[in-house]
């Protein structure tokens, strides 16, 4: 069992900031003395169906609290999710339907269990206490903070400056999230560095309701596969933890070399100096392959990670097409079709505009030959098409 100083050092490792380390130490010490575990909270708004690697930075820290015997609360913001967190937004979020939130909540919870121990996890939905709130309860909550304080946050301030509308329901978001910490009597709350305003507001509201303020632990935000912007589904630079192992490994192999060490530190909890030394003395491609294999194995197991790496090597190092690829039914053999219609009709192609862009970039190959946007393509039984670097499809007659 780790002593108090060792626990504190382990929990703070990899964090960007903690408000405050002395309060965290006091809470850990009290927990040790009384035998009452800390209540550690993570709130997630289900605004999309997938959890990606960026989310796992915080989830791994939660798992550390579990290993120390503390109670971890995975809070699904099914009510706050209908508003949408205004953090870093330059416009009002589209409100999700209750059905969307319910479905996204289900997939979030199942995916989170890939990292967290489900037997040591408490699940809550904030509709449990937010939905029954009366107007009098809401007025009491709103009386604990000023409009000036809410408008201090950069996203609201910038929108005011640029005359972009801010709606009243958006101003309620940080209050609703703060009240979650009151309802749960949270001792610690985790979040990305972008959640500083929301968590600091929660500390203030807890004190107003006569509770000790929670400790805020802020984790770094993971850059996406482009190496520049934060990982996000809307930016197309994400790696979902439910993606097939071949796709996961392939995406990781596409990240710029400068991200290798950072991903190893944030996703694997590794020492930065070790990875920097490896990059300096080994082929960075091999180091990246090790990173991709270890991350893929984390979610899919050793055997499937091995298969993903082998397929990647066959496809991209030996220029072979994969043995296993999605099959598309062929309406006739041979099939003559315009290139743009062929690509736009492929699974996972979001739009005709994207199909046109892929053709213009020379990123579409049929049976080994690159096709152009105005080509007419002949597709036969057992023909294959590659879109970009990783997506393959094979055509078959029924």
Please tell me about this protein's structure.
- This protein has 398 residues and is α/β, with parallel strands linked by helices.
- It has three domains: 4-219, HUPs (Rossmann fold, 3-Layer(aba) Sandwich); 243-317, no CATH class; 327-397, Structural Genomics Hypothetical 15.5 Kd Protein In mrcA-pckA Intergenic Region, Chain A, CATH 3.10.290.10.
- It contains 18 helices and 13 strands.
- The protein has helices at 4-12, 21-34, 53-67, 80-83, 98-112, 127-130, 135-142, 147-150, 154-161, 168-184, 196-208, 245-253, 260-268, 272-281, 284-300, 302-317, 339-344, 352-360, and strands at 17-19, 39-44, 71-76, 121-125, 188-192, 215-219, 327-330, 335-338, 364-366, 369-370, 376-379, 384-387, 391-397.
- The protein has a six-stranded mixed β-sheet with strand order 1-6-5-2-3-4, sandwiched between helices. It has a five-stranded mixed β-sheet with strand order 7-13-12-9-10, with no helix packed on it.
- A hairpin with a 2-residue loop joins strand 9 (364-366) and strand 10 (369-370).
- Helix 10 packs across helix 11.
- The radius of gyration is 24 Å and the shape is globular.
